[in-house]
Every structure is written in structure tokens, then in C-alpha cells.
Amino acid sequence: MNRKIVLVVALALIGLAACGGSKDVMREGQHAMDRWESLVRWSQYDSLIDLMHPEWLAAHPIPRIDLERLKQFRVSQYRVEQVLTDADNLVIQRSVRIHLYHNHTLRERVILHVEEWRYDAERERWLLHSGLPDPRRR
User: Fold this and answer.
1) For residue 2, which phi and psi values (nearest 5 degrees)?
2) What are the angstrom distances between the C-alpha of 117 and each of 7, 11, 26, 72, 132?
3) What is the pLDDT at residue 21?
């Protein structure tokens, strides 16, 4: 009987440790997404590339013209519409609505953008596996 109790307690402790680790990873993910949002809000578009996964960038290089196009806009609103996670909480997909104010035409454009964040265990950080917001989209 004592062995069963010890086994149950040990399994419970392992489960709690795993949950704690998962919460830390999720907290780090929230921090990365908050940083991304802040960079977008303050139009620091060049810095966004630092939060993107290098392998994703190698497969999907960001043309300079896309960055220059984005720099023509200021963000007037950034609102998270939906957040989905996988079963392991290592992939987060966020749908966001971004209100962009064009510096030259003085018009606002609203776009929907989907961000896919993945935890990279090797780098021990969350990185984006999707592109920059595209002001040409609706």
C-alpha cells in the first residue's frame, strides 16, 4: 500500500513540475508576442525580423520592398481576435486585426493578419513562423 501512495505522490509531483515548465514556456510565449505587438504598434518594422525563425526566413526571405511598403504606415490599432494553441502548447496561432494609417494618403486600412508562433526548444525561445503584416491585404 505504501508503494502505491509513494508512486501516486511521485507522479503528482512530476505532473506539477511539467505544468510549471509549461506555464513558464507559455509566459515566455506571451512575452514574445507582447514584444512583437509593441514593435508593430511603434512601427519598428526592421526589428520584427529578429523575432522570426531563421529557418523560416531562409525559406521565405523578406524582400526589402515589403519592409519599405510597411514603413509607409503607422498602426492606429492592434487587436488580437483569436488565439489557438496545439495540445502541447508549443504552437500558438493568433489572428489579429490591425488598423494601419497611411502616411501619404491619410487613410486608414484594416487588415487581418495571422501569426504562427512556435517554441524552439534548441534556442529556448518563441519565434514567429509567419510573415510580416501585409498592408495590401484586407
Assistant:
1) -60, -35
2) 36, 30, 11, 26, 13
3) 52
Starting at the earlier edge strand, list the strands of the sheet with 108-120: 73-85, 91-102, 108-120, 125-128
The low-confidence residues of the chain, meaning pLDDT below 50, are: 1-2, 4-20
End-to-end CA distance of the chain: 64
Which amino acid is residue 33, in one-letter code? Answer: M
> What's the grid cell of residue 107?
487613410
Three cell numbers written together for 121: 526548444
Instruction: Measure the CA–CA gap between 77 and 58, rounded to whole angstroms.
Output: 30
CA distance 41 to 50: 16
How many CB atoms neighbour CB 113 within 10 A?
19
For residue 111, give the C-alpha cell. 487588415
Q: Write the single-letter amino acid at 65.
A: I
Tell me which residue has cell 496545439. Answer: 86
Q: Would you give the DSSP letter of residue 49?
A: G
Span 106-116, pLDDT tens digits:
999 999 999 99
Q: Tell me: the pLDDT tens digits for 49-63? A: 999 999 999 999 999
